[in-house]
Specification:
mainly beta, Beta-galactosidase, Chain A, domain 5, 26 strands, 45% strand, globular
């Protein structure tokens, strides 16, 4: 089933499967979201929970027990329930089950809150810990935006990414699929980053945001259309497009979590970037995308 939000400017569609944003279309017919062609990547904007990225050997340990979980966790492959909906806002919920506890030994309530305001869509994450023990988790987004948008003759090389604040960011390299934060390098974003396919030859570009509010804009000089994502209080952002396949999209990924470090010992409590939520507490995070 699909949930639809609509105003005078945008029509938004969200799949109950995975609470995945699947379409954002302007009133004049521009589709901003990647349409999940499996030839390149069969998803639109998966929800990453309860991990972001990959675990070392696809496993981790809690209280002496080993659990197995695939890349980006299981939320993206589960059916959510719509708990609230208006013309411009929808809340979808996933809670733990016998199936999730085989992979992840925690009780949780995960809510995705989508809010449409004029030309902007806000995506909110709410994680509630209903148990009397600490909850450990990661969460993040993986939205993919069409490239090109308006000019069918444009290619990835006609687009650039502009980041504000404009500065030199710490870049966390990958020894795919694990992070190699011990060998962080400088990534100069004092000016727009001209996109090329080779930028992604080592997988995603991961920036350490240090929880600073950051705006990441994907645009082209060929027309006036693009997206500007503002991320509140996230430690990381990933930027990704397929390589060497020439997939016509770019992902801008706000992350409250990260793939295991190359030196990970497998203990979830030691995992780089893990969030800790006390009993009966709620975690809130969000990002917002302006479509122009």
């Amino acid at each position: 089933m699909t949930v639809e939000l609509k105003n005078d400017y945008l029509t938004v569609q969200i799949n109950e499967a995975g609470a995945e944003l699947s379409s954002v279309k302007s009133a004049d017919g521009i589709e901003y979201m990647w349409q999940a062609d499996p030839k390149f990547w069969g998803r639109h904007a998966p929800v990453l929970f309860p991990i972001v990225g990959r675990l070392k050997d696809d496993q981790y340990t809690v209280a002496g027990q080993t659990y197995h979980m695939g890349q980006h966790g299981f939320a993206r492959d589960n059916e959510f329930t719509v708990v609230e909906q208006t013309a411009t806002q929808a809340t979808l919920e996933l809670t733990d089950s016998a199936a999730t506890r085989e992979m992840y030994p925690y009780a949780f309530q995960l809510r995705l809150i989508y809010t449409l305001t004029d030309h902007e869509l806000t995506v909110g994450y709410q994680v509630h810990n209903p148990a009397n023990q600490e909850l450990l988790f990661g969460i993040g987004g993986h939205p993919a935006f069409n490239v090109p948008l308006a000019d069918p003759a444009a290619t990835l090389e006609n687009y650039s990414i502009t980041v504000a604040p404009r500065k030199v960011y710490p870049h966390i390299p990958l020894q795919a699929p694990l992070n190699d934060a011990e060998n962080t390098t400088d990534f100069d974003l004092t000016k727009p980053l001209a996109l090329t396919r080779d930028l992604f030859k080592d997988d995603a570009i991961i920036l350490d945001l240090d929880h600073q509010e950051t705006t990441v804009m994907l645009s082209s000089d060929l027309d006036d259309h693009g997206v500007a994502m503002t991320i509140e209080n996230a430690p990381y952002v990933g930027m990704w497009s397929p390589y060497p396949a020439e997939g016509p999209f770019v992902c801008l990924e706000p992350w409250w979590g990260i793939a295991d470090n190359v030196a990970s010992d497998g203990q979830l409590s030691h995992k780089m970037g893990i969030n800790r939520l006390a009993a009966n507490q709620t975690f809130d995070a969000q990002y917002a995308v302006k479509f122009f």
